[in-house]
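Entry: Procathepsin L
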Amino acid sequence: MAMNAFGDLTNEKFRHMMHGLKIQKDKDGKVFKIPFFAEIIVPVDRRQTAGVSPGQCASGWAFSAAGALEGQMFQKTGKLVSLSEQNLLDCSRSQGNEGCRGGLMDYAFQHVRNNGGLDSEESDPYRAQDGSCEYTPEYSAANITGLVNIPQQGASLLVAGAAVGPVSAAVPASLDPFRVYKEGIYYDPNCSSEDLDHGTLVVGYGSQGEEPENQKYWIVKNSGGRDRGTQGYVLLAKDRDNHCGIATMARFPVV
């Protein structure tokens, strides 16, 4: 497997730059239930509706939350509008987030709901550093009415990914696949489903090769820019015992 430009960083430097998911007790939210009439659609690939932006501080949680909300707004309006991660970094501290020191997607969603909106990226662009809150209501491009948690068991993440769009998720700090991944399907039997502290976005799934049953993958978006992974994405092994904990913290906002 080819190594990307981040593979030679020390563990300490890489964790400081990219990680920052603050694991806390979940906020209240509905639990996703598979409709009895649900059909499993294969493949699903929403990379064209999930733009890749570079994250330079521990802001993966903000990119994950903004990406999930962008996807929901696209599903609702048919328009893809980039939302402000900087708004989330600077304005969601009262919910428990700590800007470039880390945060949680649930708290970001709660902030948008309590605040009554989130500005567009154009109105408050990403600056990769903490600052004062500059939310401007007239530039708000999205809002949230609720949060749905996706159970880890069964096909819930698969159905949610097909039915509702991009889903916020997380991977572990110790073996973040985005650090070394360049191409192919990422699988490491030692990748734990615990110690999750890097926010990501599941934007689809599929399979490849002559034996697709053994070559299934999730399409996962990172926040480190197009130089990481394949144009900012990684194909993470699917149906391999919740590999890297991708289904452990899956959720999406309701708009």
